[in-house]
C-alpha cells in the first residue's frame, strides 16, 4: 500500500508567524514573501536586522530538517507508531506544524497523532 503524505511544516510555521506579526501591529509582508515574513517575525524580538536575518535563516533550516527527519523515518518509525498508538489504518497522512501551550508540535491530522517538539527555540 502506498502512503500519500501531505506536509509543509514551514508553510504552517509561516501562517503562525503571520498571525503574530499582524497582532503586533507591524507591517505584514505579502503571501509570497516568505523570507520577509520570517525576518519580520524575528525582528519583533531581535536586537537588530542582522540578528533577525540570522534567526530567520536558522529557523528555516531547522524546520526543513524536522520535516526531512520525519520523512526519512516515516515508514520505519513514524507510521508504525501512528498505527500502534491510534489504530489509524488509512493510507493518507496530513502533517502540520502547530504551536500550542508554548510548545511546538507536529500533528498528523487524520489520526490525531502528535509529536511534541518542546518549547520553541528563542
What would you say this structure looks like, in words?
This protein has 122 residues and is of the alpha+beta class. 52% of the residues lie in helices and 21% in strands. Strands 1-2-3-4 form a four-stranded mixed β-sheet. The protein is elongated and about 50 Å long. It starts with a strand and ends with a strand.
In short:
By secondary structure, the protein is α+β, with helices and mostly antiparallel strands. The protein is 52% helix and 21% strand.
- Biggest sheet, strands in spatial order? 1-2-3-4
Instruction: Specify the structural class.
Output: alpha+beta
The span between the termini is 41 Å
Q: Helix content range of the residues, please? A: 40-55%
Radius of gyration: 16 Å
Which residues sit in consecutive blocks of at least 5 with pLDDT less than 50?
none
Helical element count?
Answer: 4
Overall pLDDT level: 92
Largest sheet: 4 strands, mixed
Shape: elongated
Classify the beta-strand content into a percent band: 15-25%
Itemize the secondary structure elements and their pairings:
Layout: E1 4-7, H1 9-24, H2 34-43, H3 49-72, H4 74-86, E2 92-100, E3 103-108, E4 113-119
Parallel strand pairs: 1-2
Antiparallel strand pairs: 2-3, 3-4
Helix pairs in contact: 1-2, 2-3, 3-4
Characteristic key phrases:
4 strands; alpha+beta; about 120 residues
Amino acid at each position: 500500500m502506498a502512503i500519500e503524505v501531505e506536509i509543509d511544516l514551514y508553510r504552517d510555521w509561516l501562517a503562525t508567524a503571520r498571525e503574530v506579526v499582524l497582532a503586533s501591529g507591524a507591517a505584514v509582508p505579502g503571501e509570497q514573501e516568505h523570507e520577509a515574513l520570517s525576518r519580520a517575525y524575528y525582528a519583533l524580538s531581535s536586537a537588530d536586522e542582522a540578528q533577525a536575518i540570522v534567526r530567520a535563516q536558522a529557523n528555516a533550516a531547522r524546520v526543513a530538517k524536522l520535516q526531512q527527519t520525519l520523512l526519512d523515518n516515516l515508514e520505519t518509525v513514524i507510521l508504525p507508531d501512528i498505527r500502534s498508538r491510534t489504530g489509524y489504518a488509512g493510507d493518507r497522512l496530513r502533517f502540520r506544524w502547530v504551536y500550542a501551550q508554548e510548545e511546538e508540535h507536529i500533528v498528523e491530522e487524520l489520526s490525531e497523532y502528535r509529536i511534541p517538539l518542546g518549547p520553541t527555540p528563542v
